[in-house]
Amino acid sequence: MELESITLDHYRNYSDLTLDFSSGVNVFLGENAQGKTNLLESIYVLALARSHRTSSDKDLIQWQEKEATISGRVKRSISETPLSLHFSNKGKKARVNHLEQSKLSQYIGQLNVILFAPEDLELVKGSPNVRRRFIDMEFGQMNPLYLYNTTQYRRILRERNAYLKRLQLKQTTDTVFLDVLSEQLVDVGAQILLARQDFLNKLEVAAQPIHAEISDHRESLKLRYLSAINFEPGSDLESVKKEFKDTLLKQQSREIMQGSTMIGPHRDELQFDVNGNNVAVFGSQGQQRTTALAIKLAEIDLMQHETGEYPVLLLDDVLSELDSSRQTHLLLAIQDKVQTFITAPTLNDIARQLIQKPRVFHVKQGVIKLESDEIE
């Protein structure tokens, strides 16, 4: 899979921009605050219909403009597909092959991307919400049913929390409707739990040899899914539903007191263990970065295995955050495998030696100019 071209109209600091890309490595060089990250963000948004930098679509529209459009052409092994997203004060419209999609779950997955930015190093040591979002965003690209279920779960959760708040404030004493909402939450939530566990099992298998190689075979990596709902990997759906329902019932009085749903996939956690220890707590910064890098590289192969196509890789100013050894592992791993977009102020000697025939662009004040097909 590759992104052949992109067009931006009134997106961030780009009034009118069209670029054609190489199927290999595309490098965007420039100082900070010139628009490099905005460009990579636009590719991410084109793929996932949302930004990784803001929760408000209005932030994507150029200052003093009322609407913005991102469009691009995606090439797969057997087809080419035009995609577009239009943002306005009325919301966003997604189109595939020029046909508007009624649900975003029908749009997402047309272009698969993996983003690796400095903040992704927080995947290991950041808040649990960072890791939950990581699972949902990455697995959602591979599995439309999972994406649909997470959307449904959030809707039911909002409704259940609102009703719990009413019970907390004694605006009602009727728990029958709460039981209905709990059943709905369990039905969808149990599917999410099993899907997450399956995804993490596959990710662990893909990440372990990469992690071992980067660490010179001195370290071993394990992924652990931590949930208040006690279920074993490989459990059947009905047994997970029963466990989820029983656990909710035990927590019901506490949830009414708190006015909030206290357990479920929205509260679960992902833990990375290196040599048997939680690397977020007991690991060095180097171990944490090795783990994050191994996970990101493992995603590339896992996504190819699950979808039949390699994703597009976005490296946003991340090379400067990695030491020479990890930079080398990263650049060798992507060589001749995935279409890659790299932003950086400059390219260091390692990158210049390992990146083969990149298409180099220079970015300055929202203007992007193609340098050449090769670094001189």
From TrEMBL:
Q: Which GO terms describe its biological process?
A: DNA replication; DNA synthesis involved in DNA repair; double-strand break repair; SOS response
Task: State the SUPFAM superfamilies in the record.
Answer: P-loop containing nucleoside triphosphate hydrolases
Q: Which Gene3D superfamilies does its entry note?
A: P-loop containing nucleotide triphosphate hydrolases, RecF/RecN/SMC, N-terminal domain
Q: Which residues form the RecF/RecN/SMC N-terminal domain?
A: 3-367
Which molecular function terms from Gene Ontology are attached? ATP binding; single-stranded DNA binding
Pfam families annotated for this entry? SMC_N
Q: Per its UniProt entry, which superkingdom is the organism in? A: Bacteria
Question: Where does this chain mainly localize?
Answer: cytoplasm
Asked if the Swiss-Prot or TrEMBL record annotates the protein with the keyword Oxidoreductase, the reply is no
Residue ranges annotated as transmembrane are none
The yes or no answer to whether the keyword Repeat is present is: no
**Record-stated family:** Belongs to the RecF family.
Function in brief: The RecF protein is involved in DNA metabolism; it is required for DNA replication and normal SOS inducibility. RecF binds preferentially to single-stranded, linear DNA. It also seems to bind ATP.
Quote the NCBIfam families the UniProt record gives. Answer: recf
Report the protein name in the record: DNA replication and repair protein RecF
Organism lineage = Bacteria, Bacillati, Bacillota, Bacilli, Lactobacillales
* GN (gene name): recF
